[in-house]
Write a structure and sequence with these properties.
The complex is a heterodimer.
Chain A (H helix, E strand, L loop, with lengths): L1 H27 L12 H7 L1 H35 L1 H16 L5 H8 L4 H26 L3 H8 L5 H38 L5 H11 L3 H30 L8
Helix pairs in contact in A: 2-10, 3-4, 3-6, 3-8, 3-9, 6-8, 7-8, 8-9, 8-10, 9-10
Chain B lengths: L2 E14 L2 E14 L3 E5 L6 H8 L7 E6 L2 E2 L7 E5 L10 H12 L5 H14 L15 H13 L5 E5 L7 H17 L3 E5 L3 H7 L2 E5 L6 E6 L16 H17 L10
Parallel strand pairs in B: 3-8, 3-9, 6-7, 7-8
Antiparallel strand pairs in B: 1-2, 1-4, 4-5, 9-10
Helix pairs in contact in B: 2-3, 2-4
The chains are: A mainly alpha, B alpha/beta.
Chain lengths: 254, 266
């Protein structure tokens, strides 16, 4: 019963959403070149299916690659900030400032810096936009570790590395995954940003752009829906990882 | 009898933005092997600093801390610690939590033996059947029991406890006092207990050390002569002997707090 509910409720909600959308377009009498309706989409998918498959794969792997870099770099940065006050004081303003820059402005900068390196540019942007939440949460998780946790192992003569491995690392996992959920959508946005602003004919972003150039509104909306689906898949992949590695943080339901 | 713990003339001050804050001033504490020392004193008088010194987690500005005839300069593997916050590692089961010290100090010990040792202690404190639960599934008292098991699983020379029963309700606390005596009967250890509870200090301690207000120095040492034979019974707390010891301690605490003591009934 509960399993049926788990699937039926979100699927139902999606159907309601599509129906509302269809209704809105119908009641306003919007033609195809103003706003596409859900019933226009299947045709777009059928016609451009191979492009969708190729674009999705390009968007997906570049997002995941950028996110992987963000995890490695963000965790390392978070560790430095978590363990050293000086590093924290020095890096925070820099990081906050960098994070405040609209990343769209960086697209031309990167495009010029690494001219023609489209894959590299895109991965780099996905990384740049998504490492911040990871660095901050790992840093906070480590710096707020209660001293008793450390003392228990330190009084036994454990090394700093052992303390990190046995206590600090697992203890910050819930915070880490919380940040990763934010970062995964950010990385996805970063990838698409480059694909749309700096066109080089790759990924779902490029497909969107070609839809725009050709005034093919059903194609544009079909791309948007595909992006949403891809985003949902990525997000729930992170949720699954969280269940596996930090499932203990979920309190038993009473 | 030799002293297992010898704190000789320890003076220490913390560096704060407003200048040094002296917390310990010529503190002397001796605990013979196998004895249970309870330390009481006014709030914020440096009792926790004392535990960190004995554990070797910090060095005093002046004076010496000796453990088992050796000068303490850095953390020793022969110490077990328990705090008011049981600091369970939430991602481990209770059994894995208890086995944690063995992973550090006895990494060569076969897994089977580690499990046996941990299970033996869990049974002693009445936690058998809970070994595969997560800490979040246990009550505060049960977590503190597990924390005590973890503190002694590697058979430390010294068990250092910083108000381990402070956050528990009165009945759970009395239960744990009893558990403490049972543990000591089966696994003798030397213990230093920091507490705010005078009844606890008399019920558990072989000696009660009263520290003065900050900076703390040894103000008074009470040798506990607990009424009755064998394992101490809670009823003993309500005898005239205990009432008198408690009155003496209360008087000393008032002196430590810098107040005029009310005349104690001797």
């Amino acid at each position: 019963m509960r399993n049926v509910q788990k699937v039926a409720v979100p699927v139902g909600a999606m159907l309601v959403f599509l129906l509302l959308w269809e209704f809105l377009v119908w009641v306003n009498g919007w033609p195809n070149y103003v706003m596409a309706s859900p019933s226009d989409l299947p045709e777009a998918y059928i016609r451009f299916w191979s492009l969708f498959v190729e674009g999705s794969w390009q968007t997906l792997w570049r997002t995941v690659a950028g996110l992987a870099l963000a995890v490695i770099f963000g965790t390392a940065l978070g560790m430095v900030m978590g363990f050293s006050r000086i590093a924290r004081d020095a890096l925070y303003p820099l990081l906050v400032g960098f994070n405040a820059i609209p990343k769209a402005t960086l697209v031309p900068v990167l495009a010029l810096l690494f001219i023609g390196q489209h894959n590299f540019n895109t991965v780099l942007m996905a990384f740049l936009i998504s490492f911040f939440p990871i660095a901050v949460s790992v840093g906070i998780g480590l710096s707020t570790l209660e001293p008793e946790y450390r003392d228990i192992l330190r009084s036994l003569g454990a090394s700093r590395l052992t303390i990190f491995r046995k206590i600090a690392l697992p203890k910050t996992l819930p915070e880490f995954f919380g940040a990763l959920k934010v970062s995964v959508t950010l990385a996805f946005i970063g990838t698409n940003l480059v694909e749309i602003i700096s066109p080089h004919g790759r990924g779902l972003g490029a497909l969107f752009l070609s839809g725009q150039t050709n005034s093919n509104y059903p194609l544009m909306f079909a791309v948007l829906i595909a992006l949403a689906v891809l985003g949902i898949i990525l997000y729930y992949a992170v949720v699954m990882l969280e269940k596996i590695f930090a499932g203990w943080a979920e309190r038993p339901q009473h | 009898m030799t002293n297992l713990i010898d704190i000789k003339g320890v003076t220490h001050a913390y560096q704060t933005p407003n200048g040094p804050l002296p917390v310990l001033d010529n503190l002397n504490v001796s605990v013979p092997e196998g004895e249970f020392a309870a330390v009481v004193g006014p709030s914020g008088c440096g009792k926790s600093t004392l535990t960190r010194l004995v554990a070797g987690l910090m060095k005093p500005d002046q004076g010496e801390v000796w453990l088992h005839g050796k000068l303490v300069k850095s953390p020793r593997k022969t110490v077990g610690m328990a705090f008011q916050n049981p600091v369970m590692l939430e991602w481990r089961t209770i059994l894995q939590n208890v086995m944690l010290p063995l992973e550090i100090v006895a990494s060569g010990m076969p897994k089977k033996q580690r499990v046996e040792r941990a299970m033996e202690l869990l049974e002693l404190v009445g936690l058998s059947g809970f070994e595969n639960k997560r800490p979040s599934e246990l009550s505060g008292g049960m977590r503190q029991r597990a924390s005590l098991c973890r503190a002694i699983v590697h058979k430390p020379d010294v068990l250092i406890m910083d108000e381990p029963f402070g956050a528990l309700d009165a009945f759970t606390r009395e239960d744990l006092w009893q558990t403490m005596h049972e543990l000591r009967a089966k696994e003798p250890f030397t213990a230093v207990l920091i507490t705010h509870d005078l009844r606890e200090s008399v019920y558990l301690g072989d000696q009660v050390i009263v520290l003065s207000g900050r900076p703390a120095t040894t103000q008074y040492v009470l040798d506990v002569h607990y009424p009755g034979e064998g394992l101490r019974k809670l009823e003993g707390l309500y005898t005239p002997e205990c009432a008198q010891m408690l009155a003496t301690l209360r008087e000393q605490i008032q002196i430590a707090q810098g107040r005029q003591p009310e005349p104690a009934v001797h």
